[in-house]
Amino acid sequence: MAKKLRTPEEASFDPASIDLLQLACDNEIETAFSRADSMAACPIGADGMCCKVCSMGPCRLVKKGQTGICGATLETVAARNFARMVAAGSAAHSDHGRGMAYTLLEAAEGHAPDYQVRDLAKLEEIAVYLDVKVDEKPVNELARDVALAALHEFGKAEGEFKFLRRAPAKRQEIWKKLDIIPRNIDREIVEMMHRTHVGNDQDAEHILDHALRCSIGDGWGGSMIGTDISDILFGTPAPVLSRANLGILQEDEVNIVIHGHEPSLSEMVIAAAQDPELIEYATSKGAKGITMGGICCTANEALMRQGVPLAGNFLQQELAILTGAVDAMVVDIQCIMQGIVKVAENYQTVIITTSPKVKITGATHMEFDERRAMEIAKDIVRLACDRFPERGETHIPDVSTEVIPGFSHEYINYALGGTYRSSLRPLNDAIMSGRIRGVVANIGCNNARVRHDDAFYRVVTEFLKNDVLVVETGCGAIASAKQGYMTPEAALEHAGPGLREVCETVGMPPVLHMGSCVDNSRILTVLAQMATEGGLGDDISDIPAVGMAPEWMSEKAISIATYCVASGAYVIMGHSSPVSGVEEVTRLITDGWEEKVGGRMEFTNDPDEIVSRSLAHIDKKRAALGLPEYDPNKWGKSGDWRIQEFIELPFAEKIEAAYGSAK
């Protein structure tokens, strides 16, 4: 019996995606959604009960007490599988960070003349963390020293990772006591792979302890380096106005979609697309100009620094091509579906791979070299222009919303305290008073096995009603951007009375866009600053906050979740648990980790359950801090919205509202 295919409305919550999924059905074009419907997940592997680390297997452990051929128990197998996900996710983010460090080095030494330091203050700040003397050095000399010091952190022979001093002192003590402080970034990833090789570490708890150590090297290491150096080279994000969803594509212009994760590529393509010579080249091909759009985390990077509109998140990469309006999709690393090449065969779209680490069969490879960055970027834009005359019929959904991204931790400090008193004190005070009930970091991927964007919409909507401030990165951020939750006006319509007052006062959205998935390090920084600011305990584990990834799918998401737990956070993952079939390993990552590091990781596929667990945890942390019980009735009696309400009253009612009735 054939498996029932979902309707477009069942597959996605997003209206633009529903429109294009119907087009795919009508034209019998395969997408990730239809592949997910036709291919059942392996239940044994999905539950963490399959081992394939040697050629005696794969061993499927489906009976109680059953072991692999080597004697490995179910607990060992599940812990190994989980730990290898952490290692792969850590490697992906950390290698991104290494690439950014090399780009800074090339720029500083004059080998990559198209790049330069754009944020000197950030460069000097990071120099201090890396024990690099600032003195009166020329900018490029300081940049070179910082780049070399950052690269040293990946493979140094001795000492501890220097960025860990950015964590609260109590958190550092916990890591030291448990002996899970990373020695360097690469070593912990390599050791994780070594430990999980056949015949090595065979104690589930011991394996998972090192998974914590490996992930810390990601969150407080490779990811943080990637974020910091991106800010140094391309500018620290601050709010800009843009738009989100596939309606940003233009029927009469060359549309270039950038997709992946590395801003060193996207920044150059964006600059090239604004070159008057190339705009003239586009018009010579019959177009009125060139439009840039982004998919996935490259979209977030380009959005928050350059205001480049968001075309969509992970599950919209094939759908963007289905519009028939994308002339080139330019990709680098991570989250790139091989299926985009097959979809592009139906259109004029050229898929261009650019990274020496990534090639896709059937795509055009134009390898990016930072030493010739602008030259290569211009060649990419020309190729996109050449495809414009080959267009057939287009189908661009008339769906897009306004978005204000760019809330780096530096800007949040500035917004709350001003130029001379930048501080998170107002945020802490708002939580302590109860205007803000707590904070949720809602992040992560999309997953084709669940309804696209639905879980993000449902949890964020409920959190805002309950006066919970939401911070977001990655594809989760894009989901909220498309929903219209990332403008200050959204607070008036969707936020509870306390959160609405805070958003009105500061002029900020109730959902803050903090960047790409590598930028979860920004969230760690905010949490660390909240803990050290005072009033909310002295560690991240004390703060009324929850992390979550309701539609997670990648190994990077597991690494992020693990380093958040290692930092003391309560983390809820949606969809399914990769160790659900193994009770002991589930206990270790929940109760076991909470006893050790103060954080825990849970899984549930029910958005309502995610909300209820989160609010219960936030209220528990408020009570532990001795904060007043959350009471929304205390707030909502001030703010500009009440003035506007008063202005709109008839004159007689204004008099009565202001002075009382004549009686």
In short:
This protein is an alpha/beta fold.
Distance linking N and C termini = 77 Å
Compute the number of strand runs. Answer: 16
The total tally of domains equals 4
What kind of sheet is the major sheet? Answer: 6 strands, parallel
CATH fold category name of the largest domain: Rossmann fold
Q: Give the overall form.
A: globular
Query: Biggest sheet: strands side by side, in what order?
Result: 6-5-4-7-8-9
| Helix fraction by DSSP (H/I, runs of at least 4) | 40-55%
Q: Please tell me the CATH architecture of the largest domain by its name.
A: 3-Layer(aba) Sandwich
Give the structural class.
Answer: alpha/beta
Radius of gyration based on Cα positions? 25 Å
- Tell me the strand percentage band: 5-15%
Alpha plus pi helix count: 28
Please mark out the parts with pLDDT under 50 across 5 or more consecutive residues, or reply none: none
CATH class of the largest domain: Alpha Beta
Mean pLDDT: 94
